[in-house]
Amino acid sequence: MRKLFLLFIFFMVGCIERPKIEKGDIVIKCVIKEREIMEPNSTIEPGYRYKYYTDCGEVLTTKNSSIYHIGDTITYVYKKKKY
After folding, report:
1. Which residue in 7, 28, 38, 52 has the most C-beta neighbors within 10 A?
2. Mean of the per-residue pLDDT values for the chain?
3. pLDDT over threshold 80, residue 76
4. Tell me: the pLDDT tens digits for 27-63?
5. Cα–Cα nearest to 64, from 42, 44, 45, 49
6. Does any domain span residue 9?
7. What is the gyration radius of the CA atoms in the chain, in angstroms?
8. Structural domain tally of the chain?
9. Which burial class, exposed, middle or buried, applies to 15 when counting CB atoms under 10 A from its CB (0-12, 13-18, 19+)?
10. Residues facing 64 on adjacent strands
């Protein structure tokens, strides 16, 4: 029963349609230039946060230090408005 449930979950995840870049969408590529390590604000907050700055002015914040590295390219896709 457990294997059947896992097979069903994998099947459903595979059927989800991912958004695609369409005509009219704005695509911007930014390169990570700087990383800042932010200490916890209180004793309740468990661990450090990492803030990444890009060359196009965007800021990313994560709790995991191994997701992004300096020099990585981040692609932003701004979807066209549907009326």
Report:
1. 52
2. 85
3. yes
4. 999 999 999 999 988 888 888 999 999 999 999 999 9
5. 49
6. no
7. 19
8. 1
9. exposed
10. none
Residue range of the domain that includes 29: 20-78
Q: Would you give the end-to-end CA distance of the chain in angstroms? A: 45
What's the pTM?
0.68
Distance CA 30, CA 41 (A): 29
Nearest to 37 by CA among 53, 21, 50: 50
Is pLDDT of 25 > 70?
yes
Asked if residue 59 is part of any domain, the answer here is yes
Lookup result for tokens 């590295």: 69
List the structure tokens of 6. Answer: 């896992």
